[in-house]
Amino acid sequence: MKKVLILVVILAIGGVLGVVGYQRYLQRERDDANGALRLFGNVDIRDAALSFHDPERLATVQVEEGDRVTAGQVVATQQSVRIEAELVAARARVTAQAAVVERFERGTRPQELAQAGARVHAAEVQVQNAQRVVERVRRTAATGAASEQSRDDAEAGLAIAEAALQVERESLALAEEGPRAEDVAQARATLESMRAEVGRLEVSLRDTELRAPSPGVVRSRVLEPGEMAGPDRAVVIVALTDPKWIRVWVPEPELGRVAPGLEVVVRSDSFGGREYPGRIGFVSPVAEFTPQHVETQELRTQLVYEVRVVVEDPDDELRLGMPVTVDVASARAK
Length: 334
Hints:
Blueprint (H helix, E strand, L loop, with lengths): L1 H29 L6 E7 L3 E4 L5 E6 L6 E2 L4 E5 L2 H26 L3 H33 L5 H30 L3 H26 L2 E3 L4 E6 L6 E2 L6 E5 L3 E8 L11 E5 L7 E15 L13 E9 L11 E6 L6
Helix pairs in contact: 2-5, 3-4
């Protein structure tokens, strides 16, 4: 029995030593000769499906599949005849309303004031003349030479002349006072609304040009001229190449050796081990088990964290999806 117990203890100790040795072997496989952490991953694939803001018929598609595009380059255009016509009409309305506002702000012109004063003077003369007629009719009516109807007609004419004089005096007062403040405010608000409409149409006109958001390669040309293009239909799909990311996975025991901002060296077998400088840009706060893309056998059964590396590739040699090796030349995080 003692021999069996001793044998079990020896086997247990041997198993523990074997596990420790295997872990150290994996550590040596991950680390290079200088002690840097070696990780494996791929050049990340990021696509942008480019579509227009407003629905309209497609006029031109200026790129083909495989073409390289720069940031801001026009890749497609929509027909713009309708928007251009609406913009011309909107600008004309702004011009007309601006004239209305200017007229209100300047107030009544001197010539208009003079005309209003002349009309008041003419109305005063009419009142004076009507008063003299009434006085004559009353004198003759007292002697029986004029009828009561004549007297009533004369008095009615005087009342009409006096009312007309009052109207002209009020018109002169309004002309001297100028437009009401609320009328001026309304005219200004209307002008601003019309200007905003012009701005909206100008934006819509600019949006008829579809531009690449950043450098990349056209992966797919989806629509052709003559088809309807809008926000729900991509015209082209661009694989973005700037900034260029490398996606790798770090086992949980090595998580302390990586941190955002650390410098790394990226290598690819396709270019004879050429080195590309980079830095760690993102370390996932969430662990995952069996990532979608595994690079080594031990990663299949380990708890890992996704790490994204920003790599400098001025000659654009690294292709999207290409497998690469990343060396993190740093000690454990302090």
